[in-house]
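Worked example 2:
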Amino acid sequence: MLVHNMLRKGLFGELRHCEAGYQHYGARARPAIPGRPKEDKVYTANSYPTHPIGPVAQWMDINHGNRFDYLVSMSADATRGNGSADINTSLIRTVHGQTITLYFDTKLPRPYDLIYRVQGTRGICMASSDKIYIEGRSPKPDTWKPMEAYYKEFEHPLWKALGEKALKRGGHGAGDWMVLYRLINALRTGTPPDMDVYDAATWSCITELSEKSVANRSSPVDFPDFTRGRWKTTPPVRYR
């Protein structure tokens, strides 16, 4: 939400590239439990794109004046020889000429990291590393700076108003409560939700599209337009 606010205020200039990924060692994040069904499906592509792509899609106004155009995808062979992929890397291009690098990496030992790199014509942010550089604003040219001061200056108004309450109610650093609050508020007021069925379809289809690309030596695969052209006139998401 901080990055969303900074983008809307033009701090990064024109957004050109984002990087994100679900990078989380699954064996330790979801240890085997007696009686839990085993996952039998063999994955050769990005099988969980929605977690990392959601914020990026909103930053890029996907389905709200912009849309994903096509992707190419490539997977590293599995070390276990079961036909599943250890790591998948997908590249997505939007109709406005922006690019996204999207990772799926849950099979190998590694620290948790969703990355969230945001890069525009005036600067760059590495959110999970808490680093930022803004041309003409950062004190030293081409030198990273901690994001602490930006939190103080550009914290999202919605978080300022509800963040303390959300933290008390809990769930993924208060994110769970905030999402539920926003959904219930939309239902009560009859306003569009922050995420709709078109977003769900667009984010989820990355799994199938990446699987097709991997199977065809990383050939480009077009995104369907689930909105049937309405993305051109649907206003961007504004958290209020």
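Strands lie at 15-23, 68-77, 85-94, 99-105, 117-120, 123-126, 131-134, 145-146, 221-222. Residues 194 and 237 are 6 Å apart (CA to CA).
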